[in-house]
Each structure stands twice: as C-alpha cells, then as structure tokens.
Amino acid sequence: DIQMTQSPSSLSASVGDRVTITCRASQDISNYLAWYQQKPGKAPKSLIYAASSLQSGVPSKFSGSGFGTDFSLTISGLQPEDSATYYCQHYKSYPQTFGQGTKLEIK
Amino acid sequence: EVQLVESGGGLVQPGRSLRLSCAASGFTFDDYAMHWVRQGPGKGLEWVSGISWNTGSLGYADSVKGRFTISRDNAKKFLFLQMNSVKPEDTALYYCARDEGYQVGAIQHWGQGTLVIVSS
Fold it and tell me: How many angstroms separate the Cα of A44 from the Cα of each of A59, A102, B93?
C-alpha cells in the first residue's frame, strides 16, 4: 500500500501569513493527489484534486503543487476561518490512503 | 445542490452486522463513483471503500477487506456499506462521499456522516 506522510503535524501562524503543508507519498503517484479541509465537528471539505486543480467554489488563496512523490498545499492571506485540519489523499490505486493530517492554528 | 444523507449507524455488538445507507440527490447518481470514508473518535480520516459508476471497479481498505461490502442502486440513487464481523476498531463516524468523476478518484462532495459504535 502507498503511505502518505504529512508535515508538519501542526503549525501556528498569524492572520495574513502564508503557510505551506507538505505531503510525501511512499511511491510515485503521478498527480493523483487531493487535499481536504476539516473544521472541528464538521464534515471534510474538498479543496484540490489532481495535485493542483481547485475544486469549484474554493478560493484562490488555496493552491497545490507537486508531482510524483512530493506535494504541497499553500494557503495565503490566512484568516481565522482557515483554522482547521488539512489532509492529503492519494487516489493512484487501491487502497486510497490519507495522510495523518496537519492541524493549522491561527494566532 | 448535491446532498448525501447517511443512515443506518448505531450501537452494534462485536461480531454482528450492520448496513449503512446513503441517499443521494441533486445530481445524476449513475454518472459518479462513490466512496465511504470513516473517522474514529479523535482520529484522522480513513478511506474505507470506493465503487465506480457501474460497479465495475471496487476497492477496499486492508482493514475492512473481506468483512465489508460496498454496493449501489443506481435506480434508487442509494449507496450501501454492508459491515459484517464488526470489531471495536470499526467504531467511527462513517461518511458517504461523491467522486469528481465516474471512476474511483478524488472526492468532491461529502455527507454529514452516520455514527457506528461497536461495543458489547
């Protein structure tokens, strides 16, 4: 199975900052990589698919990049509502797997 | 508007069975692959299973393979998860989710989840 490893596990940033979360796959997954946002007590929300394509309705402050084994999610112009846990997920093959999550706190 | 409404969760004893359902509306159900994703208490997301638009492609997490079965009724717009021989570690909030396409790929829309508790 393909393992997904995110870093950092948690981070704290200020309003207006830009942050980057990284996700590494244990083997080449091409661009079969998605990112999701989950706020406490809520269902996840889909942000990005195919490593860099924004889901409909997702603001352009979110951006994704990467190919092969190394990927990143960048969030610019941080606002309090961006406080959440972010997950990457590969869908290259079965079973799909998620990263362990990155908890983002806005100071 | 895409709506996914899960049902069928509850308290079940270890070793017993449970069937989860997901009612879909607001889109052409048989144009899309579907998924089940779960989240244990205080834990991260775990992909459980996925099914293509025509059931031609099915996949399972190693942790549920051989015990869980995913299926769909395109005419009635329902997704199902048959859970057999449940274990305490199957305790989780189970989300139904719609793919972005007809083959199993990235998730685009999520339901609100149904809670399954496995305990004696």
Answer: 16, 13, 12
A33: its two tokens: 């990589």
Please answer yes or no on whether A43 and B111 come within 8 Å at the CB atom. yes
Report how far residue B32's alpha carbon sits from residue B34's, in angstroms, rounded to the nearest whole number.
6
Q: Give mean pLDDT, residues A3-7.
A: 98
> What is the structure's pLDDT at B72?
98
| Residue B95 to residue A44, Cβ atoms within 8 A | yes
User: What digits encode the pLDDT tens for the residues A8-23?
Assistant: 999 999 999 999 999 9
Q: Where are the beta strands (DSSP E) in chain A?
A: 4-7, 10-13, 19-25, 33-38, 45-49, 53-54, 62-67, 70-75, 84-90, 97-98, 102-106
pLDDT tens column, B83-109: 999 999 999 999 999 999 999 999 999
A70-75, strands of its sheet edge to edge: A4-7, A19-25, A70-75, A62-67
Residue of chain B whose alpha carbon sits nearest to that of A58:
B108
Query: Are β-strands A102-106 and A4-7 bridged in parallel, bridged antiparallel, or unpaired?
Result: unpaired
* Amino acid (1-letter code) at residue B106: A
Length of chain A equals 107
% of chain A beyond a pLDDT of 90 = 99
**Amino acid (one-letter) located at A78:** L
